[in-house]
Fold this protein.
Amino acid sequence: MDYLECLRLTHAALEPRTYCEIGCWYGPSLAVSRSPTIAIDPKPHIAFQIEAPTRIYKMTSDEFFEQYDITELFGEPIDFGFVDGMHLVEFALRDFINMERNAHPGGVIAIDDILPADMAYTGRKQGQGAWTGDVYRLLPILAEYRPDLRIDVYDVEIKGFCLVSNLDPDSRVLEEAMAEIEQAIEQGRWKFETLEQLRDALGPKPAEALAGDLAELARRRESAESAAAAE
């Protein structure tokens, strides 16, 4: 199973009302969406047929969230988001913060490039071949500063797949700790030397567990929405 199949399963199980993607590049993951979609990429080169109503913003994610209110653009918060932008942990952290702040509390954020198949992929500078950068460091940061989040990591080929749920759009914990976190990143915190250390820290589930976890998420969302409607 690859990350595109993971996205297909997620879209099919959750049926999100809105979908936001950071880092669409040439569009294979956009082609999976069937929901109103906003994609953000400074250099998109779309080569796939996109069926969902989609708006592509040709800019960095930092620029986008400074200039636009995505809830106003959609008419409602983000229901499902996918972080696949610049492959450096501080960028992924800002993308997560911006995505969660604009998300539905029952929404889900997927994160790519968090379980590299080889530590050679994890350099801070892109080389030849596969490059996941050090995005994996985002997960221990979230676990440390936001233990209220549910973080599920799946052992998907080459680069892994992660779902973050139990979102809190009102939380400002990460924003308030940003300077502290960035300093710790520069000092080498949350960095692993071996693949074994990384996998032990992230505790990935087999890819086959994704379908069952998505079914549980869908049930939780339905229950929460039914309870909210009854109030």
User: Anything to note?
Assistant: Strands lie at 19-22, 37-40, 54-57, 78-83, 103-112, 150-155, 161-165, 205-206.
